[in-house]
Queue: 4 jobs
Job 1
Amino acid sequence: MDSNLAAIVDEALAAADGAANLGDLSALSARYLGKKSALAAAKKALGQLEPAERKAAGQAINEARERIEAAFAARKTLLASAERAVQLEGERLDLTEIYGEVRRGHYHLVTQARDRLEDVFVGMGFRVAEGPEVETAWYNFEALNIPDWHPARGSFDTIFVNLGEPEEVMLRSHTSPVQIRTMENEEPPIYIVAPGRTFRTDAADATHLPAFNQIEGLVVDRGITMGDLAGTIDEFVHAFFGGDVQSRLRPSYFPFTEPSAEFDISRADGSWLELGGCGMVHPNVLRNCGIDPDVWQGFAFGFGIDRLAVMRYELDDIRELVNNDVRFLEQF
Amino acid sequence: MKVLLSWLREFAPDIVGDPVELGETLSALGLAVEEMTITGEGLDGIVVGKVLDLRPHPDADKIQLVDVDRGDGEALQVCCGAFNMAVGDLIPFATIGTIMPNGMEIAQRKMRGQMSNGMCCSAEEIGLGADAEGIMILEGVGDDQLGAPITEALGIETDVLWDLEVNANRPDAMSVAGVARDLAAGLGIPFAFPEFPFTEGGGPAAESVKTVSEAAKVELLDASLCGRFLARVLRNVTVGTSPQWMQNRLTAAGMRPINSVVDISNYVMLELGQPNHTYDLAKVPNGHLRVRRATEGETITTLDDIERTLTAADGVIANGDDLAVGIAGVMGGASTEISETTTEVLLELAWWDPPSISRTVRRLNLPSEASVRYRRGVDWGVNMERAAARFVQLLQAGSVESGGATTDVGMIDERGTTPDRSPLRVRPAKVNGLLGTELSADAMADHLASIGFVITPAGDDLDVVIPTWRWDTETETDVAEEVARMYGYENIIKTVPKGTDAGALSPYQIARRRVREVLVGAGCDETQPMPFLAPGDLAAAGLPEEGVTLTNPLVHEESVLRTSLLPGQLKTVAYNQSHRIETMRLFEIGHIYLPAPEGQLLPDEREALAVALAGSEAPAAIELLKLLESTFSLPNVQIRPTTPPGLHPTRAAEVVIAGQHRGEVGEVDPVVAEAFGVAGRVAWLQLDLGAVLNGPHGRRRYRRISKYPSSDIDLAFVIADDIAAANAEATIRKAAGDLLVRLDLFDSYRGTGVPDDARSLAYRLRFQAADRTLTDDEVATVRQSVIDTMAKKHGAALR
């Protein structure tokens, strides 16, 4: 390599090292490697050399170019990395600096309890039936074997509405009207649960609401027995409350079932908690819905949904379920 | 129904054992124990004291000083707040160191400078009555008892009091004897009625012997009203105070002692379940009673001195002049009421038709201890004579000192219609098939016989005579319940029905759960306000006032059923804002009750969805609508600008899905928000959820993704303000045709270069064909078609 070429290389290498940024480097790269560079001129001049010298000279120029290119490439990597580092540092964020609130909403406690109950009963082979909240005396009382003079009518503390004759239309005082509507419209076998809102003239206090939620079950099939009722309650209690919780039936009275029972569940301290009412569907009720009680037998049961939510979370005031205070709703 | 163990033992002496276990047995028989108390305990240290002197407290007006002899002759000074005592009275006296039933210990102390050495007690303080006003004066206790423990002096024994919940189908258990019968059967021990001996036609002071038919006459004019009417005449009656033991029992059972005659009447009702009525015979001319239905509008002044107007459905007892002297089974009349001067009494025991009594009680709202029994159906059998005998016996026993009451010979016993009690054929196979048991006919017969059913075998079956104290029991199923009750519900083996259908939620129920899921995911809290509104709420919410009203609301503020979820949501927002929650995202799924359609009785009840976003503007509600639209692939969702009632006049729209009105979206009218005390904007969405989810939705079709490149063009149009963006968008889609695969509005501009009553809307259109690469010419053609159509249809110029 002639001294001239060596000087070009030295100068180019020094220039590359001295480039402060990628822009300068790019300009210098053009100066030392571009079409107007000394190297390009030297290459052009090769033609004037003797063929014998030409090969060696050409080789020297290529080597010089490679050295310069390598130097520029190395410098470029260095500068690019430095510049990226500066840029990234400039983008630094404190990820714990959060404005506003990002949150999922919340299902109402009653919905949570109701969905869970529905899921358990669906798993046991039931469908979920629903019905209107404003009902006629037929569905709320008469078809359920509660004639107008019956003492049990008074115990329902019914809220009536100003439609039809006096006391002809009411807010349903239980979910049992759904039993009648289902039996009127469907042929047995019937396996349903009917969750929904019910109403009574109970002034709102820590343990009462005039509007509350119940769930009702109805089975009508051939050969259904009271043993089936007790077993179904037991299976539900195990699935919903846990395998170690026991259930029992006690004699009771409802006009629409015969025999009738209350059902209790066992508590950890050995005592029993009354959960709901149940019984074998009264033959009159089946007849009222056009079902022959000599062919079909059935059972029904019902209990409160709100109370399950109250028990589960040990709420000290059931009114929280209808106050809809966001500070309450967002706890669950 | 409150029953004392000692009272039960008069019918079943072998009832023994742990009170808690006995209570469990009662519960298992269907007589649920609501409360159990041990009575007569905690009275140690309370003795019979005598008032020796009474004098004012020198420094206090509301207490006086009493000197009491506690039995040792010494005068103990006591400060006392009651003033009903007289010198010489015997009183219950709590000595120093006594622990009162309420836990308070009696100590020597000074009251306003005066020493007090014990306490004079009221009946209430020692659990012997409800009277808390004055000190209990011990009538009927003699001076020889001075210093004796109060329990000894009053014959108080430790006892167990159960408060039982008696179901409406158990008329028998509305009596001590009936409870004893059931409990004895449950325990497998004997039950028997004691004899109630009395002297008929004479008595200690008999002057002349009369027969009842000389003194009284009963005409039973309506056999459907009265199944049996039994009467006795009692003479030489003195109305006084009943013995302490009877007062103790009545008090324990929750009744207030009144006088000897009333107390016996109540005692017999509690003990034997037979309500009864006493007339002052002197006030019933010729002792003549007529039992009939009332005439429409007939009036009577009842015992409580209130004049009541009757209907033809009510039953009355009238006198010989046919003037009503009592409402059958409900309340006696004032005109024949016994008083302190009464000496001759006409005693009535009757069986009234339960539905008749129920209707009258409900209409007059006059429940009583008697009518609650008549409504369930009292015993029309031999128990009626027994109750009459018990009445006379107690009256005679209680009036020995005054010469003794007498009763005329015989009874009036008129009969109307009572339930048929001919044998009922019961099939043990059917009973087992209902209960899931395998009981033999004999076992069933034994269970039934233990509670007084009379059984005769009839081949494989049983002929069952249902006792007269079980009015409610009529059918084979009713009898099956009795078998189950006596066999024990807990002994029925638990099985599970063999239904073969799979359980499932309906498509609607599944979709409704997804609505909740999507909205909860979008940060909304689910609310469930009660559906009651105050009058005026609907008007305040700008809604037509057509809500169904309640006949008997608990409070005026909750007397209207909602026709929209809007008022309830606004109240919820206001409630939270008043608790410093300013912004919130709420939703609700609940029923609304629209006016009944013509010819229908029930309201048009629908399940609605509402979303209320406090602190957000209308587009936030649109976003949630879009979220639901894409979740359920709702077909052809249109937002048509109108002003639904209650919503912002310029920021609200009707939601139309598949051509049907399905709800409203936008912002709540600021005037409405203000009326409900809501601050700031509320974005609002309400949908007829039932209609939306039961309508077409969720239909999705596969389209192969094109392999060919797509081309984007941007077009900005100057569009007049009165043309909705939705309309412009629809026009673009239609003009662009099938090649348009995506359309995005990316800018809305007002200002320089755009007329005042218009805005520039900039759209990006992406074109793509499924089967080829589009040429520039093709794109240009579609582009021009869009531009031309926009100009033609909306007068929109390209900007």
Job 2
Amino acid sequence: MSDLIDAFQVAGKAFFGFQAIFFALLAIGINVHFGYTGLLNFGQIAFAMLGGFGIAISVSQWGLPFWVGVLVAIGSAVVLALLLGLPTLRLRADYLAIVTIAVAEGLRLLFRSVSATPVTGGTRGLSAFNGSFIALAPWDTQKRYNILGTSWSGGELWVALIGWLLVILFTLLVWQLMRSPWGRVVKAIREDEDAVRALGKNVYNYKMQALVLGGVIGAFGGMVYAVGTGSAIPDQYQNANTFLAYGALILGGAARVLGPVIGAMLLLFILQFADTGLRALISNGVIPDTLLSSTDVAQIRFVLVGIGLMLLLVFRPQGIFGDRREVMLDAR
Amino acid sequence: MPADPTAHGAHAAGPDETPAAGPTPTRESAAGRTPQRLAQAALKDLPWEVGVAKPDPAIVVDKVTRSFGGLTAVSVDHLEVQRGGITGLIGPNGAGKTTLFNLLTGFDQPNTGSWSFDGRDLGKLSPHQVARLGVVRTFQLTKALSRLTVLQNMLLGAQGQRGESFLRALVPGGWRSQEKENTERAMDLLRRFKLDAKKDDFAGILSGGQRKLLEMARALMSDPKVVMLDEPMAGVNPALTQSLLGHVKDLREEGMTVIFVEHDMDVVRDISDWVVVMAAGKIIAEGPPESISQNKAVVDAYLGAHHDAPLTVEEEDRVLAEADASLAREDGLPPGRPGTDEISSDGSTR
């Protein structure tokens, strides 16, 4: 029983930790792209990687102040969005999907390559760039704090606080945009581009704006992740994270303001709970060693999440917040 | 076809009667009920010939061609569309009507040629720029925006919205009042089209006919000068057709120029002031609706020039090959195997 409570507490920390923020921001960006505008961005992690490395390279390689690093990170995300969008947004939706997935993988391989080592640190990545940010915390970052039975370092708490503020900020931004005429145009583009063109809207511009906005939000996710872990390593930015963020978005409900946030929190909670819970059950002998060893747990929990998502799509395709009427309309 | 038979009765010129000698506009207005069919009156004295100059053209098309590979889909030498009138565009399937629509509205680019609206060259404009000039279109396959509500669909049609720019969208105070005005106007239009009760429903649950209505109403939200309707009546039940026809006539009353593609000749005869007939990418006839059914070129296009002959070169070749083969068979080659082989290799037209 105490193991179960432990598992809950550990998972509860995951619920609020910087990884949940990371996925929440990725998913908010994807929500702008996919949920509202209908852009298939399968390389959101590339924006996050530019976010993380934007700070890391600026601070630890170029010796720039932290806040300049943030600006560099935002700027490089904007440039990436423009580069991805310029050739593909005039074409059908699938072209953006192909290009983003290729760029996400290509950029990661480039960043970890030997020739890029002088700048990106290669496979070992960069570290020691978040000191000036952690130092801003109004409390002692060396001490550990106990909150509801979970233990946080002062630094973790600070990153989580700022991270959640960012999540709230971007959620409000998306909420405001999507109830404005701008959001109406963007949603109409998701439904049918040509109809929107025929009504005098510059579809290309709107798609580009949405791509840049979602990409910058994703870059903030990468920044939170890099600052939270204290290091930026190219292989942390596997493209599987993009698809986990999609999972979070579907779980919460696409094209819903709170969908990606709650989805990301729940996804992380479930992953962590399954992990600690299963390990506890195995060590207690409830699950026999012959059936499942604790080394399998890391994989099994993703299987469980997968099964959960499948059940979700069967019984509640709209996700937690979605409107079933609306989702069923799209059975094209 | 209940609508205004008097106008047509008074105007039912025989094929022999030259249009120049047709009844005068005064008689037309004396016929009464029809409100003001200025365009019809203005077009009355024009000769019924392809490329004829109109008194007050809104759209002028010159030497526009568009080919897809070897197929010339559109090759229009000269066409003028009278302002304030309803111009029907008819023709058999594959005649290039929709392609011409696509060219005129910027959805497709021609290989050669130019066209203008109100004297402004539309040649290099993209679809949204054409729409902003006041030329809006609807689509053959209705494009209702399914997961937007009916009212949102309508509001999307409004032009010059401040809240549609990214930065200004963030300050609701900047666009609220405009949004309110637009909503009122949208509700007026929805009431006209009897869709006001559905305003909060998703457009995706509307019936096919209601979507046609919604698409037309949405196009009107942009205060267009020219409305181009691509088969507005296709798949709409007869009762709704009548109401759609009424709406199209209302557009003319409001001074809009309407161009529409339609296959139903009753509808075409009922509402159009001028009819343009296309076949195989070319305009083969122009004239008032009553002139069309007697036009030989039109009858040829719909039914085939020689009713017993093939329409295309390929078909002609195939028929010739078959004839050759049967001749060869008659010549005594017992089962005619070589002959049939020849046919299949010919007929497959590699």
Job 3
Amino acid sequence: MRPFLYSRATSLEQAMSEAAQSHAAIMAGGTTLVDLMRGDLTGAEHVIDIGHLPGLAKVELDGPVLRFGALARMADVAELPFLKQNYPALVESLQLAASQQIRNAATLGGNLLQRTRCVYFRDGVSDCNKRVPGSGCTALDGEDREMALFGASDRCVATYPGDWGTALAAFDTSIEISSAAGTKTVKFADFHVAYGDDPARESILQPGEIVTAILVQATPAGRHSTYVKVRDRQSYAYAVTSAAVALELDGDRVTAARVSLGGVASKPWRAPAAEAALVGQVLNQAVALEAGRAAFADAKALRHNGFKIDLGARTVARAAMVAKGKH
Amino acid sequence: MDINMGNGGIGVPVVRRDAMAKVLGVAQYAADFPHENTAYAALTLSKVARGRISRLDTAAAEAVAGVRMVLTHRSLNESLGDETFVMKGGHMQSSFLPLTSDEIHYAGQIVSLTIADTLEAAEEAARLVAIDYAREAASASMDDAGLTEEPADSGIDVGDAEAAFAAAEVKVDATYVTPAQHHNPIELYAASAAWQDGKLLINLPSQWVMGTRAGLAKVFGIPIEDVHVESPYVGGAFGAKASILPHVVLVAMAARRLGRPVKLVVPREAGFTVGSFRPAARSRVRLAATRQGKLTAVMHDEVGQSAVIDHVAFAGMEATSKMYASPNIRMRAATVATDVNSPGFMRAPAEAPSFFGFESAMDELAVALGIDPVELRIMNEPARDPVSGLPWSSRLLVECYRRGAALFGWSDRNPKPGSMVAADGTLIGYGCATATYPSAMAPSSARVRLSADGSCVVYCAAHDVGTGAYTVLGQVAADVLGVPDELVTVEMGHSRHPSGPVSGGSITTGSAGSAVHMAARAVRERLFATVAAGQDRSKMTLADRHVVLPDGSRRAISDIIGGLPGGVIEEHADWKPTDMDDKTMQQGLAGGMAFAGPVGGTHVSFSFGAQFAEVRIDPLLRTIRVARMVGVFACGRIINPRTARSNLMGGMIWGASSALLEESQIDRARGRFANTDLASYHFAANADVGEVVVEMLDEHDSVVNAIGTKAVGEVGIVGMPAAIANAVYHATGVRVRKTPILMEDLL
């Protein structure tokens, strides 16, 4: 493999300074970066390990904003009783991801930045605009069952693979980003970038910037929330389709709704049309399915992934009904 | 039958002798053997599926610090012995050896081997080998336009099936498709080669150390005795490690040229094309029956994916033609050559794909007739092999069905599709299918040594590929010699041992076990002759480390053997199947492929099983889960119920995995396998496997071999995909005639 320099950061400041150099990569849990480096997919020449830095794994849940330190481990967060009770969608999205061993090591911040599982990106051989800009997109006439229905372009049709990110999109979430210039927060919806003209660019993160926290606005909708993941294999598989739904209810009537989609888009994908279809309605199976169909009204299918329009709608419907049934 | 059941050696669920070593991580696999001063190798693979190398530049690769050699078609430049493809009587995984020309025959073909002082340097150099290709159009899928079917052999004909089918009252005519699949053993392909004084020592995971030795001797033009192959532990093989993979030759070649040991572990993605795979297949099945359910015609047309570089045909007709009584049978097989690496053996190579179609069609016939699928199979049970007319060595398929139906609760099944629904709306389906696998055997040698302290060592160049053979062969010796199982040591997986057969075709227990039995009996005979010359040996027995004389008196083994020169009794045996001639036997013992059966001179020998599945399908999302599987098998005598059960259970789980998950997707535009990692090539996780019930019937087969065992290793997978597809139909009314069956097939 490519020779690279490895250093353990002694402070966040040092890490931010080193990360500002070209071909630097930040490593937290290492579960995804090492894979990418083995596949020669990063071009990283300097790996800056921040996994052990103190203070960045703290989770604070008692204020008006839930604050998740970027280095908190997926497995640890998935076990927090308060979160299980009040934000089941977030917990479920963590529990249904990867394997227990990976969740033990992987961090919440790193999870957001995992890269697509598109086989043509990963194989290191096929033309791929994400890996070699300008080389083309093999998936356009290749195996496209896993590819995106939303946020794709004729340059890239890969999907964002994460579960946690999809669940976060169903809440009022922000990302705290730190750099030598200071700390800023950006809306989660603006953090990832749909694969349009520049598929190699997947988030707004710039060299020298490090995700330090994930901030979720506290909401009563958390209690009536769920994350439904549909996959070929029962465990340890990426979503074919997934949906997170969070509801505020007055009896059986929906007063507020957030719906997001996974496995079908180039970034965590919010579905406002589905939300609109739910709000004001007495929620039943027919209404839920109608909302699911609304979520996929603008979907653009390729040759072999058209079934995800139907399956995705059903996934939203299931999630809506499960969310309603919580507590 | 000469089985001493009194000692508890045979039929006892002895725990695997290698279990602790594996659990503790002390069992050494091929890549764990450290040769001193080893250099490390890495592969570069072809990016195109067909064409020629038009430019090759290794300068950058050679400039990497620590690189010792870049082996390409230009630098190999040496003729190797003309060893051939394993299915043409040789030992190679493919007729084509990479680096012997500039031609590209398939995507992922090895185009260079870089060797360096460290693995990292070798990998970096492999990345820097610069190659341009003159690319030609390729077809990696048998469904591509313009490909033609070639008949694979003459087929099987009994009666006039076409006429009977045309005239039949009830019939089924359907085509079923199975995809390419890859073995993906958890232990990656590997080789570690060292030369000393012109002799080659090679560590690799192998199902055939004797064949590998013979093949490498031929490739390198050295005496067979100068090749030593070591493979004491194998971390999954499934047919993939039965022949010499191309990297093995290249690693040995590099080690010879460098004068230094070389080791290569083939990365997961490279394993998809460095090794072999299960080719895609298509089965057209036509069944005809009377309204009462008696079969009148059975027809099976199989088309299998083959390779341009090697003709490979895995038709299951030998088995499907024997399943049911029918006066008219017609079987045909054909292949379609594609631009892929040579397909090869993979768990029930012929049976697994062909039984998916054949047993799905039986279910469709049962539906068409309105007859219970279990009863339909029972009412068409053949008394003799319907093709040869020979009797079975044993066949308890009906008993398997009766017992399996009881265990499963088949009588609870409402035959109407979609009629069984759980309280939460989950659709429930029950399905069944037949499994079978031929009981073939190969010649084998073995040596057994009994020492004065009662300890016993068994030597045989067979293999434990995770199946429990170490334990099972030890039990055979313990049983004959009347010594406790824990005093027996089994040495296998090394070519210096007495010749053992390939661990393929589910033959190890019947073949190597028979040889061990023969050698152990020879030891016992010498023991008896030593202790009491002139007495009636047929009335002597061995128990608890004592010889029991006809008068009931006992003589300790320690006393008898202690007095002998050397203090041991050691005997060698060369065993062959009854129907095999001596010449074939000698070929087999010398490392050639020499099988006898399943159709012998007087009998036909197969293992049988009845398999049942319960699927649960989400009514909205249409995801399919296998809640329960039941398999009841008749495989002759079971030496070790624990390891046999584990084999059968593993096969059933693989069958479920095959039914619902496993497919090597072929990117047709580029002619290559697309999902070459374990994130995208799915096989079952623990969570996918519900309850698995395995039972083995107490079957006595006095014909098949001296120890009465039939094939266990592969039969477990055979019926499971069809049983699950049939259950999916029962749950939903949707007949899916391809695997894997995915949620979108049911939307």
Job 4
Amino acid sequence: MEIYLPIAEMSVHWLVILGMGFGVGFLSGMFGIGGGFLLTPLLIFYGIPPGVAVATTASQVSAVTFSGVVTHWRRRTLDLKMGAVMLSGGLTGTALGVYLFSVLRRMGQSEFSVSASYVILLGIVGGLMLNESLRTLRAMRTGQPAFGRKPGQHNWIHGLPFKMRFRESRLYISAIPPVVLGFVVGILSAIMGVGGAFMMVPVMIYVLRMPTNVVVGTSLFQVLFVTATATILHAVDNYTVDIVMAMFLILGGVAGVQYGVRVGTKLRGEQLRLLLALLVLAVAARLFVEMVATPADLYTVAVGTP
Amino acid sequence: MKRRLLLAAAAALLATLPAAADEDLVSGVSQDVVEITSNYTGTDLTVFGDVEQPEDAAGRDIVVVVRGPDARITVRRKDRFAGIWINNARAQLIGMPSYYFLASTRPLEDIAAPDTLRRYDLGLDNLRPERALSDGSIDPYVRAMVRALGKRGLYVQSGTAVEMLSATLFRVRVPVPATVPRGSYNVQVYLFRDGNVVSAQSTPLFVDQTGFDRRLYTFAHRWPFSYGVSTVLMALLFGWASSFLFRRKA
């Protein structure tokens, strides 16, 4: 059955939207990512106007992450204090990012800057994760001590002031790195139209050295607030949030995330990271090919937008 | 006496002859409002009409045009820099129709001279914006736009779609896809005789959302903040409900 979307002003098949929500929700439950970087391109590919796709994805991501946050809260795999510290930087960064994005859009370069930031960031993040998880898996197979968290190890982060104790993460570190991380991810997520968990998770693991089990819940917590803010900003500034499409995406998404979380807890951290790395690299490669390949039509046409 | 009578008869004949010879047109549309509801997937309209005081059918042609509300359209051209395709130039076309359907009894170029077609904005090749902002010729941009909207089913031209039911009675099926913009449309029917427009008729048509969709659209545009907050609340409610439901099941 086809349904008409009042904001996108087109009709779609509800099962397709529901299915996309479910699939992306499953992956986000499994990896602890919001899934925006997968859902937005999928919706655009299906024919949804890019503005509506970005804005409505934000609302789906906030539903999926809320569901995940509740689950992690119950399992006590969420560092609320760390999440709040990161969020203080994250919301400031989002506001700045929304401004930057409007400047880029006026220059007609929003499309290119979105694709380019996707390719660069997904490429770096995916490459690092792939390298690390493969090394860990190989080390485990040969019986060598696994590369990973070394509790006694100190790095440059421990020299910074404003130290705070994060009990759930078993860390005593400066508040500056989490705030800066939240800020940077906030800017990037506003420009790229995603929550940004896929960028935060590796930094939290490798730089902050948080235990993997609390990383997922904590990043979801930050993404929840960033995407909820983004949804409201998009609704107010651009009128591009389609609540009917959001409903179907959310229904599929919240069901998917529950199965994803269950599968995720059964897999080992290294395996999860290997899979996520491959997924991230695949998206980056696809976008890169799109930027380099000669387009079928050199002209793009936008109706009714400045 | 006889001569005067003849003159009078001739005068009367001259007075009535042109009137009697003038072909005229009556036409109508099956609907004057297209209502977009939550299960709207596109529809078909029928434009129909009849030729009055018909003359010889040989030199007669009928052209039906449905034109949607004007839109501001931005067309961007990509160029290659260091192997990467980047939007480099753009044109803004103002006053192009957001929907354009044309049907005729024969291909347009057989019906009238290019000048005539251009004067009446007939045919996809003759659509020109009222105003355009561009750093060069707008022609490639306009062509790109006609191509893109044609692919979306919003620009249609057919040289055979006018169906003659009898010598004078005609009918045209107009496909209205699900992506049509809302607004006021205009249905124009032209009667051509030997390459000239001898009669034209215009009927307004409205496309609008109704019911639940209309209310949502109004809500989103009039109270955007509350609309955004409602969407987020709905998202949180579903998220919370699902984690609750699935915990019970597990």
